[in-house]
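Q: Got a minute? One more chain.
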Amino acid sequence: MSWLRDLLFGSIRGRLLLLMLGGLGTLMFALFLLLDFSIDKQIFGRLDATLLSRARGVVVLLESHPRDDAWQELHELSPEYATGGHTDFVQIWDAAGTTLLSSASNAANNLQPPPAPVPANAPLFYDLRLPDGHRGRAVGLRFSMLGRADEAILVVAEEREQVDQLERHVHVALVIGVLGMGLLAALLSVLAVRGGLRPLFAFAAETGPDGAPRVEPLPVARMPQELRPFADTLNSAFARLQAALGRERRFARDVAHELRTPLAETRMAVELASRAPSPQVLAGALASIDRMQRCIDGLLALSRYEAGIDQAQVEPLELVDLLRRSLAMAAGPAGKRGVTIAAQLPDECWVMSDPALLERIVDNLLLNAAEYTPGSSDVRVELASVAGGWNLRIGNAAPELAPEDLARLGERFWRKSAAREASNHGGLGLALSGTLAGLLGLRLDFALSQGVLWASLGPLRPIVLPEGPAS
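A: Always. Here it is, folded:
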């Protein structure tokens, strides 16, 4: 029976059908009981009302006329009591249980007396077996006959088989009606569940064949409201998965692209060194290995920051001191090419940022400027206060760049001149700087003005000190 349990409880369709059919079945059964009770109450209520009306008519005659006159008038007004039929019966007992009067329809047989004492001011209804053997319904009344000191008990009875037959017909009609409504409700439930779950199956088909991630986002606007949160979540998951796959493909492509030349150079150097050892050849091999190491380190750093593995640790830092350290680091490579770095810095500048990430951005920008500016030229560094914080600008002469090249600055391994493909730089400095700037909530923009390339980083959020109490 495990397959049945899996069918009913292992799927949304089975659970919905079970819930709807169970709920509708319970509702139909409750409706059947309510209708049956109401109809029975109406049918037997009318029968009891008829019996009570007849009994009170007989009581009025016996209380207002002598016994024989009243009995004769009763038979004249209600011939059914005198015909000897088997549908209506009357019998009267005294307090001792002796029969005083009995209708001709009794055929010398006695009616069953009331099963309990008849109340003084209320009727007593009960079921009985009639003298002719049929089932009947009776009402008993206590009253005082004219000319008698003691009270008498009147019983008026009527055959109830026609009423029982009507009740059975009503029961059959109710059962057929309830079963028909139940079958119709079951059919409608199946159709409703199938139609209601159709958008869910369409949603499963929309997610892609064999569960493959979609390139295009799911059409959320065309989906039912209940499925939109799932579609938004899947769209977000697919976007993250596509981004991760893109990073992996880009990482593999970049590694294959950038390491091809250093590996060839290293192989050639090793082959030459194996034939005729030379310090110059080995130094070239070490330089190629260093270049590959910088490239791999840069690619790994980019991947970790883009994937959100490494996060910024923001804390207060003194920006001028950080810039002076970066300037001292860049002074060596710049001096070899006769490049002068001129900085305009305030005495002190406190900001909120990640010291390690910000220092790496500044180092990359300064080294890039010192490397690509023409020899014996200047690199200018400016730190100025702007709306919302501080802005750092680094400018260097760039006669080879055109305005249309600005959009490509920050692309991985992009260089303006093919002659620089063998540069000692890995080609990832500006790309890494852009990623780190976004991680810190900063903008890294490039502008070309009169042959000078300006890199602008900011705004760096200043530290807001609480105001002291007024003196």
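A: The chain has three domains: 12-167, 222-306, 315-418+427-460.
Q: Perfect, thanks.
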